[in-house]
């Protein structure tokens, strides 16, 4: 009975978390889609981070969620993400049109939005959801690895909501779902062993910066999907995360 009650509470708390964090984020981003002021996105992320903190107050803080700086060396357990980041950085560099100028405000907003977005995602998906699922799996004596995979699957599926604002971006969204699933598993393993949310925030921030900095130089506003070859390259780069994360998990468990 206790196990069943915990399961019900976990599902309910996951639903509460998603409803009061991801849903408001999507609504605010949709309303802001035609806004040309980049700092508005930072304001949106600050709002949803505060909502995530309120959710933690409501459902109770997971036992492994702490903001203390510890075990930062565990960042290197996610070594493949650092390599993938470098590969993406090189590919992005080759696609940049340097004739397009960027302002200081654009650069500052890009770094600020990326950092706030990463803090929000890691707080919600690793700090709250993964912790809740892993705690339940540990109590039920189930594999923690399956708990990490489950939370990563939820993390990936939430990116399907991007189709609300970009219904034409089908291949790009499916690709994002696949590579965020791989990303989530690697981050999930690092977080599980480090018990430090800052390790995965740092890894995720590095990955996002190198994976998307070319957008600063882009002036393309056409409603088009990504090319198939681009989608395949991203997937091929990210798929090894699953195997490497599993090996890391087995070795450290």
Mean pLDDT: 91
Enumerate the spans where pLDDT stays under 50 for 5 or more consecutive residues: 1-7
Put simply, the count of helices is 9
Shape summary: globular
User: Whole-number radius of gyration?
Assistant: 18 Å
Classification by helices and strands: mainly alpha
N-to-C span: 29 Å
Largest sheet: none
Strand content: under 5%
Encode the helix/strand succession as letters. HHHHHHHHH
Q: Quaternary status of these chains? A: single chain
What's the total count of β strands? 0
Helix content: over 70%
Q: Can you tell me about this structure?
A:
The protein is mainly α and 253 residues long. The chain contains 9 helices and no strands. The chain is globular and about 55 Å long. Residues 1-7 have low confidence and may be disordered. The longest helix has 36 residues, at 104-139. It starts with a helix and ends with a helix.
